[in-house]
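Figure-free illustration: sequence to structure, shown twice.
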Amino acid sequence: MALYIAIIDDDPASRKQYERLLKREADVRTAKGEVLYIDTFGDEEAALPCIRKYDLLFIDISKAEQDGMTIAANLRKKGIAALIVLCSEKIDYEEKYGRSNDFLYHKCPLWQRDFSHYIDLAAEAKKTRPKYLELRNETDTIYVQPDEILYARQEGGYMNITLTNSRSFSFLGSTSKFEDILGTCEPVFLETAKDTVLNMRYVISHSHNSFKMSDGAIINYSFFNKSFIMRAWKRYNEYIFSKKFS
């Protein structure tokens, strides 16, 4: 399993020490077939553009107006589900804010055995946490859950992806590259043409050679693909039926 770890700390010396200890832990786990990706940031703003990819966050901000607890609470409000450890060096977060079911507290220093313990906890939590997909173009990166994708259509070198809540994103890449990112998601995505992929969860009706989506879009497909598409549509409905009664 791969685990993404971020350190958000405004003390450069602490960041350097954490990096060194996490590198040791990464070397130990590599031998076991586990992979750790480690990034460090001096403040919340630097981490925000890619925050959704992380499975484990170590936070200690004491020199800014917002301390580590305020930042951690803001991340939860944004829907960040990663395991968060508030590291108390200058601020005793538990004493200041009381016990919390949302965060773990750790009084500094942290040793390699401590990082190992929290990594084990984060790895276990990741097994049941919703999956996020990373979508990129030349200037932007977003993280979405598969259920947020309604459909995608290729135009030139981009896949124009329609998302829930009237959002959209232009993904740089082909249909096959986009499907590689979808990977082993539940069998809800269907390629109706070489340039179109839809999420069958958002189909509200089927008529002749087209699907009507929940946002009103009509997605047509070729008569020559109909037998394949109908088999996939049948498998999807059987899958949903089995999930409903499992």
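We now fold a second protein in the same way, so the two outputs can be compared directly.
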Amino acid sequence: MAQRLTEKFPIDQPVEIWFERINLWIPGIVVRHQHPAVWVRSIDGRDWFVTNGSRIRLIQRESSAEQ
């Protein structure tokens, strides 16, 4: 069974979220859970409601522009 985002990404977990429109992974941190999704605060201070598991990943230290 697939893990829910709230199980896979705990609060305070550094992550990256995918913005297709600008073709870029943006770093952020999980700030709260709202089942079945998570809220991520990006580095510019905006909060994003992430519901799609393909648009969030653990932070990667290499180039954030790579998918």
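Summary for the second example: The radius of gyration is 11 Å.
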